[in-house]
C-alpha cells in the first residue's frame, strides 16, 4: 500500500480561507479580531515563530499587536504588560511565546493571562474545561491534529489510537480530546512514553498513530499496522551537508518506509506544522466572536 498524503499546507490554507471570511463578517459588525504576541529575548527559533504568526494574522485580517521585549525584562514588567493586554478591548487573544528567560516564572505568566483570551489553550482553566468536556480554547497543535483527522474523513469513533508522547502541550491534550464523548472523540486511546514496556506492540494495534516523541525514527514500518493512519507531530533537525543550512527537518516517523504500509500519513514539513498556527488564528477569531455573544 502507498499511503495517501494528508497535506497539512492545503488543509491549513482551506481553514485560513474560511477564517478570512469570518473575519470579514466580524468587520461588518465593527469587530476586528486582535492577537497580542509577546516575545521576550532574542531566541532565533522563537523570533521566527513569532514572525510567522504575525504574518499569518495579517494574511487573514487579524490585527496583530507586536510586543518584543529585551531578555532582561523583569517578571513584574511582563505581568504589567499582560494585565494591560487583558484589559484592552482590541485584544481578543494573548500569546506569550515560550520558553521565557530563566528569571521569569512561566507558570505565573500563563496564569496571569485572562482565560477568556487564552488562545494558546495552556491556562489551567482551559485545560481543565477541555478535560471535562466544556467549551474551551483547545491547545493549537493537538486541535490541529484533530482537524486534520476530521477533514481527511478518518473515522474516530471506536478507533484504536496510540499516542507516542505524554507532554502537556501535545501528547496529553490530544489523548484527552480523543476520548471525549463527542464527534471529535469517541476513540479508544493508549498513551505511550519512555517507560512504556513494548512500544511496538502497542503501535501495532493502532488504527491511528500519533507520534509526538521528539526523536527521528521513533515509529518504524515494522511497528505500523497495514492501512493505519499516521500523524507525525515531531519536528527534528538532522545533519544534512547537501542543505545550505547544514540540516533538514524530519518527523518522528520513518516516513519513506511507513508510507509504504500506512493508509494515510502526514509529511514533515508540511503536515501538522501549518495546522498549529491555523488553530491559533481559529481561537483568536472564536474569542472575538464570543465578545458579540456576551454583549
Ligand atoms: P516533549 O515535551 O519532549 O515530550 C516528548 C514525549 O515523548 C515525552 O512524553 C517522552 O516520554 C516521549 N518519548 C520520547 N521518546 C520516546 C520513545 N522512544 N518512546 C516512547 N515515548 C517517547 O516533546 P513535545 O513538546 O511534546 O514535542 C514532541 C515533538 O513534537 C517534538 O519534535 C516537537 O518539536 C514537535 N512539536 C511540533 C509542533 C508542530 O506544530 N508541528 C508543535 C509542538 C511540538 P517521557 O514523558 O517518559 O519523557
Number of domains: 2
- State the total count of DSSP E strands: 11
Strand numbers in spatial order across the main sheet: 1-11-8-7-5-6
**Distance, first to last CA:** 54 Å
Q: Which percent range fits the helix content?
A: 40-55%
Counting H and I runs of at least 4 residues, what is the number of helices?
10
Low-confidence blocks of residues: none
Coarse morphology: globular
Beta-strand percent range: 15-25%
Overview of this protein structure:
The radius of gyration is 19 Å and the shape is globular. Helices cover 41% and strands 16% of the residues. It is α/β, with parallel strands linked by helices. It folds into 2 domains: 30-116, Leucine Dehydrogenase, chain A, domain 1 (Rossmann fold, 3-Layer(aba) Sandwich), CATH 3.40.50; 140-273, NAD(P)-binding Rossmann-like Domain (Rossmann fold, 3-Layer(aba) Sandwich), CATH 3.40.50.720. The chain has a 6-stranded parallel sheet with strand order 1-11-8-7-5-6. The protein has a 3-stranded parallel sheet with strand order 3-2-4, with helices on both faces. Residues 141, 164-167, 169-171, 192-196, 199, 212-215, 218, 233-236, 272-273, 276 line the site of NADP nicotinamide-adenine-dinucleotide phosphate. NADP nicotinamide-adenine-dinucleotide phosphate is lined by residues 141, 164-167, 169-171, 192-196, 199, 212-215, 218, 233-236, 272-273, 276.
Brief summary of the model shown:
This protein has 295 residues and is an alpha/beta fold. It has helices at 8-28, 44-60, 75-87, 106-112, 124-131, 140-151, 171-179, 199-204, 255-258, 272-294; strands at 4-5, 34-40, 63-69, 93-96, 160-164, 188-192, 208-211, 229-232, 236-239, 247-250, 264-265. The strands form three sheets. A six-stranded parallel sheet has the order 1-11-8-7-5-6. A three-stranded parallel sheet has the order 3-2-4, with helices on both faces. It has a two-stranded antiparallel sheet with strand order 9-10.
Amino acid at each position: 500500500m502507498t499511503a495517501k498524503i494528508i497535506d497539512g499546507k492545503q488543509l491549513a490554507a482551506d481553514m485560513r480561507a474560511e477564517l478570512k471570511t469570518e473575519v470579514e463578517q466580524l468587520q461588518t459588525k465593527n469587530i476586528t479580531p486582535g492577537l497580542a504576541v509577546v516575545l521576550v529575548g532574542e531566541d532565533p527559533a522563537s523570533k521566527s515563530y513569532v514572525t510567522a504568526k504575525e504574518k499569518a494574522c495579517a494574511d487573514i485580517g487579524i490585527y496583530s499587536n507586536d510586543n518584543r521585549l529585551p531578555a532582561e525584562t523583569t517578571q513584574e514588567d511582563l505581568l504589567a504588560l499582560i494585565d494591560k493586554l487583558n484589559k484592552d478591548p482590541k485584544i481578543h487573544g494573548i500569546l506569550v511565546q515560550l520558553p521565557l528567560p530563566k528569571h521569569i516564572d512561566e507558570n505565573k505568566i500563563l496564569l496571569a493571562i485572562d482565560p477568556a483570551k487564552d488562545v494558546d489553550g495552556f491556562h489551567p482553566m482551559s485545560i481543565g474545561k477541555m478535560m471535562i468536556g466544556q467549551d474551551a480554547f483547545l491547545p493549537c497543535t493537538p486541535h490541529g491534529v484533530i482537524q486534520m483527522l476530521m477533514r481527511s474523513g478518518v473515522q474516530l469513533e471506536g478507533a484504536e489510537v496510540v499516542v507516542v508522547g505524554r507532554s502537556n502541550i501535545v501528547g496529553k491534550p490530544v489523548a484527552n480530546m480523543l476520548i471525549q464523548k463527542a464527534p471529535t472523540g469517541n476513540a479508544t486511546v493508549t498513551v505511550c512514553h519512555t517507560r512504556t514496556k513494548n512500544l511496538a506492540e502497542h503501535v501495532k494495534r493502532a488504527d491511528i498513530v500519533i507520534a509526538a516523541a521528539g526523536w527521528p525514527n521513533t515509529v518504524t514500518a515494522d511497528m505500523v499496522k497495514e492501512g493505519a493512519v499516521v500523524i507525525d507531530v515531531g519536528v527534528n533537525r538532522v545533519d544534512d551537508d547537501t542543505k545550505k543550512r547544514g540540516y533538514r527537518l524530519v518527523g518522528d516517523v520513518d516516513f519513506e518506509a511507513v508510507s509504504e504500509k500506512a493508509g494515510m500519513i502526514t509529511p514533515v514539513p508540511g503536515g501538522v506544522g501549518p495546522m498549529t498556527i491555523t488553530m491559533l488564528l481559529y481561537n483568536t477569531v472564536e474569542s472575538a466572536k464570543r465578545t458579540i455573544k456576551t454583549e
